[in-house]
Amino acid sequence: MYEEWLDKYEYLIELGKSLTGYPESAKTEDRLIKGCQSRVWLDYKMEDGKLYFSADSDAIITKGIISLLIGIYSGRTPAEIAGDDFSFIDKIGLKENLSPTRANGLVSMINTIKATAIENNK
Questions:
Q1: Are 13 and 64 in contact (CB under 8 A)?
Q2: Which of 62, 82, 86, 104 has its CA 20 to 30 A from that of 97?
Q3: How far is the C-alpha of 69 from the C-alpha of 71, rounded, in Å?
Q4: Are 85 and 77 within 8 A, CB to CB?
Q5: Helices (runs of H) and strands (runs of E) counted in the chain
Q6: Would you call 36 a catalytic residue per the annotation?
């Protein structure tokens, strides 16, 4: 959709700003994604055989990244998510345009989403 990385970066900021509705009461240690420099909380619910994620972060870019991920994976079955290779990350150049600490955080977010799907794929 965007050719220039700066445009993609601005899009992530907009995604982060649009991510709302995560209650303060859900910002608990058990929902905190380990391995992120920023604080990122991820929760989910299973409905009609599909996972629906909600999330928040204390950093706007990180909030945009998790917003992108949950926008793609919410509403899919655990099997679909568990079987996905998340290759779109490489295709859009996201990881290579992040700082090393944010790239590590991205990997942690992906791993958490995938682990949630595997755990619920029973």
A1: yes
A2: 82
A3: 5
A4: no
A5: 5, 2
A6: yes
* Residue 95 confidence class, pLDDT cut points 50, 70, 90: confident
Q: What is the band of 2 on the pLDDT scale with cuts at 50, 70, 90?
A: low
Q: Residues for the chain: how many in total?
A: 122
Q: Which two tokens stand for residue 117?
A: 């799907």
3-class secondary structure, 32: strand
Residue 36 pLDDT: 85
d(CA 105, CA 111): 10
Tokens 């799907």 locate to 117
Catalytic residue, chosen from 12, 15, 33, 36, is 36
Token pair of 1 as six digits: 């959709």
Give the confidence band of 1 by pLDDT, cuts at 50, 70, 90: low
